[in-house]
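User: I'm curious whether this sequence folds into something compact or stays loose and floppy. Could you predict its structure so I can see for myself?
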Amino acid sequence: ATPYQRNTMTFGLGSLNDVQAIDIENRGLEGMTFAIVYQQTKVPVNLRVPGEQNMINAVAASAIALSMGVPWQHITEGLHDYEGIKGRFKPYRLRNGVTLVDDSYNSNPYSLGAALKAIKELEPKRGRTIICLGQMSELGKETGPAHREAGAWVASMAAEYLLVMGESASEVLEGALKKGFPSSRAKIVSTHKEMAQE
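Assistant: Here's the prediction. I'll summarize afterward.
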């Protein structure tokens, strides 16, 4: 119980959590399989959306459902049927073996960091990664540092190209170049059309 006289339920990857994900298998663009453990019950889950962030969200949703007495079958079926949110790490398979990952919805440093980490894990052994970034809004005094950090993250991925647009594009570029990203493979663009053409 907490000081507010309410029961608590924790969730996550660690063994001390009440609801825990184990036996995690990352299947790339096909999603993730794992098991959820709660009170000595272990239930397999097939999540069809990629990214560790989606798995953590699935464990959180499971904890909420379990605390409300939802049957396991409803939980696993709901997680299996989940298709993700438009604009939040949504992969699309295009022609010629190209995969486009759309993470444009209300981007913020946490979602961008999670997306870049997941993209690095999805990257094929042979192929190129092109990162196209726009403006992250409503960050206040953290706007500059957050965009410079985003550039540094891209540099750590060894992406092939970086295209940036928005008010903080120069700060993203600064962060990338400072961490060794080649200036010849980074460009600021002014419109979505120009970004697509590049």
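Summary: Helices lie at 52-67, 72-81, 109-122, 143-157, 169-178, 192-197. The first helix runs from residue 52 to 67.
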